[in-house]
Amino acid sequence: METVSVAGLRIAYRTAGSGPPLVLLHGAYEDGRVWQDQLDDLSDEFTVIAWDAPGCGGSDDLTDGAGSLGEILAGLLAELGLVDGGGKPHVLGLSFGSVVALDLWQHHPEIPASLVLASAYAGWAGSLPPEEVERRILQATAELDMPPSEIIPAWLPTLLTARATGEMRARVSRLIKDFRPSGMRALLAVAGRADYRPVLPTITVPTLLLYGAEDVRSPLAVAEDLQRQIPGSELAVLPGVGHMSFIEDPAGFNGAVRRWLRGRGAGRG
Fold this sequence. Notes:
This protein is α/β, with parallel strands linked by helices. The protein has a single domain (about 1-265), classed as Alpha/Beta hydrolase fold, catalytic domain (Rossmann fold), CATH 3.40.50. It has 11 helices and 8 strands. Helix 9 links the parallel strand 7 and strand 8 (about 235-240). Helix 2 (about 70-80) crosses helix 3 (about 95-105). It is globular. The two termini are about 30 Å apart.
């Protein structure tokens, strides 16, 4: 793990491989470790960069005045030489990470070469009924004062299907166990009621929507709505997996990302 300073914050990231840059943005209650299968597999063809969002893993908590999450991500990419003359990065955001990707597009549309929005939302408020948004915010707020051992049993069935292996469940549980309440509280305040619907029609780069067929947190109705609103976007559905499709079916997830990026002229295809 390496770190750089962006807007006064220490931002941690992992990187592997060489080739066109592919930036991975994790979901809530996680950090860049969640992408290990992708760092191992896709690094044969791409320079894979997995950040720890502010408030997660090795990164500092989000502070007032640091800028939006997309602006902080842009700062990281600038530090890595991927903004001016370094080759535009392909940006993959999962769940909460998709909100970061949309915020990057809103503030710096010149940066991404393409977007992959996986298990994505246009923000909770942009994709879910108001009553569900309030339920999730109340639940997440209450969980910040609870020990992780009480959170994990409630979260796992919404992230993985019943077919997930014990090792997969243990892996996700370890990540949730390590979350920082202070970090998540700051992220929830910023992103809990985010609504990026006005941003969707402005997207002009190639965009892939990648979803698990059995995702109960971000169901296919959300994916289909995003596809209608993002011009020229493509939808790919992985059968038999849920919200964390990249853990339940890493071969299927990585293969879909690889094929799609090759079709955009990236990689060896």
